[in-house]
Amino acid sequence: MTIVSYAGITRPSFLLAHPELPVLVYCKLQLNSTSTLRIPSNDMKRTEVTRFRCYVAERTFESTSVGSSLSNTGNVRLGRKQRSSSSLYSRPSLLEMKNEKIANRAKVYEFLRGIGIVPDELDGLELPVTTEVMRERVDFLHKLGLTIEDINNYPLVLGCSVKKNMIPVLDYLGKLGVRKSTFTEFLRRYPQVLHASVVVDLDPVVKYLQGMDIKPNDIPRVLERYPEILGFKLEGTMSTSVAYLVGIGLARREVGGVLTRYPEILGMRVGRVIKPFVEYLESLGIPRLAVARLIEKRPHILGFGLEEQVKPNVGSLLEFNVRKSSLPSVVAQYPEIIGIELKEKLLGQQCLLHSVIDLGPEDFGRVVEKMPQVVSLSRLPIVKHVDFLKDCGFSLHQVRAMVVGCPQLLALNLDIMKHSFDYFQVKMERPLDDLVTFPAFFTYGLESTIKPRHKRVAKKGMKCSLSWLLNCSDEKFEQRMEYDTIDMEEMEMPSFDMNTLTEPRSEDSASDYDDSDDEHI
């Protein structure tokens, strides 16, 4: 065995990272003389054993390297047990992360309080970690027209990301046709929409509305009028309310028009709102089918509070001498009468008519029964119509009798009334008492009805009352012209017929409605 001794030469320095050391330590090796043992073997390979010692931060490590002369690399094993891998960065502890999160939220809360927003309801809500991102959200909401007061009314809106929540929702609404000018009011009424998913929440509701025969062009107006609809469940209140109305007689083809004009129906509970309302009107004497027709024409009446408005108003009508038997026709003629501030109007109109034509309480009740819209007439038209009748030569007593017999005289076009009266005096040559007996004469068209019928009767040499002449359909008038005598039983004043609401619909009376309902005269 040959032992060869020699000194090993290595690189003068190197970097060593120790997992327990906070920073990198530069160290230099101190090398002992290295001995190499040559051990012959059968394959004559030479094995070298190298030992060295280094000092790092007052710690001593020994390392031994064993390698083959045929190998280009060696393995280094530290004498002390260490982790298999080490990192140059230290990770914060969970406690440190929690404290940092609390500190960031405190800064965000401080910013919100500084601009007037109360963050009390935001605890537990995921918020931006920096005030800069929160400021971006607040500024974006301001651009939409929302004020600090609006945000305080629903502070949870601050949990919505501008890019992930707000912009996608607003873009979707804009593509549907919702006007940007309505966004502010839209979000004030239903700010929760900014939390919604377009695909999961909004689009299914829009498709449901289209399935209810609401036209695509009307969808934006429906959403603008009732944005809360975007938060309803498809198989909940929306479907049951429509099904109930169809069940009581609402024509299926009218559903789209009804919902377009009053989409709030979709949010009404059948058991709490719709059914009690329908049943109460039935208890007044209005047939169920007639109620359905009223809803088709005036769907907003379902929004009248039953206990707060409807029942008190019915009580007021009775108090002002409207007979109970006349309540069905009063409501059917003017459904809005059960939803307005009625008692003050009744008192005001009763006092006005008493001062103008000396109308008594009982007669006032008859006037309301025949034309309930009188409660909404202003003073000036009433006075002008009364003055016209007086100028025609009628006494105050006769004017009062005419108003009680046909209250519509207080609301007709004065120019048309003048033309009709001139024809009555010049061509028909009848006494004024005929108009006192049948004041509804002024409600018929001069060219379409009065003139042609008067000429037919005059040509035949018949003498008849104005009621016999006018108070019938064209078909009935043709039958009357075949009479040899005049049936006095047919000489009645026209009145409202409830059957007009329950008659079968014509095929062309479907869905299109004008939004400008004649709620007031």
Mind summarizing the main beta sheet?
A: 5 strands, antiparallel
Which class of secondary structure composition applies to the elements? alpha+beta
Q: Oligomeric form of this entry?
A: single chain
Tell the overall outline.
Answer: elongated
Helicity, as a percent range: 40-55%
Count helical runs: 22
The topology string of helices and strands comes to EEEEEEEHHHHHHHHHHHHHHHHHHHHHH
The fraction of residues in strands falls at 5-15%
Features:
two-stranded antiparallel sheet; 47% helix; single chain; 521 residues; 7% strand; five-stranded antiparallel β-sheet; 7 strands; disordered C terminus; alpha+beta
Summarize the structure.
The protein is an alpha+beta fold and 521 residues long. It has helices spanning 94-114, 131-143, 148-153, 162-176, 183-189, 198-211, 219-225, 234-248, 255-261, 270-283, 288-297, 306-319, 327-333, 342-357, 361-370, 379-391, 396-405, 414-428, 432-437, 446-460, 466-470, 474-480; strands spanning 3-5, 13-16, 25-30, 35-37, 47-56, 59-68, 77-78. Belongs to the mTERF family.
Describe it for me?
By secondary structure, this protein is of the alpha+beta class. Helices cover 47% and strands 7% of the residues. It has helices spanning 94-114, 131-143, 148-153, 162-176, 183-189, 198-211, 219-225, 234-248, 255-261, 270-283, 288-297, 306-319, 327-333, 342-357, 361-370, 379-391, 396-405, 414-428, 432-437, 446-460, 466-470, 474-480, and strands at 3-5, 13-16, 25-30, 35-37, 47-56, 59-68, 77-78. The protein has a 5-stranded antiparallel beta sheet with strand order 2-3-5-6-7, with no helix packed on it. The chain has a two-stranded antiparallel sheet with strand order 1-4. Helix 14 (342-357) packs parallel to helix 16 and helix 18 packs parallel to helix 20. The longest helix has 21 residues, at 94-114. It is elongated, with a radius of gyration of 46 Å. Residues 65-75 have a biased composition (Polar residues). Keywords: Chloroplast, Plastid, Transcription, Transcription regulation, Transcription termination, Transit peptide.
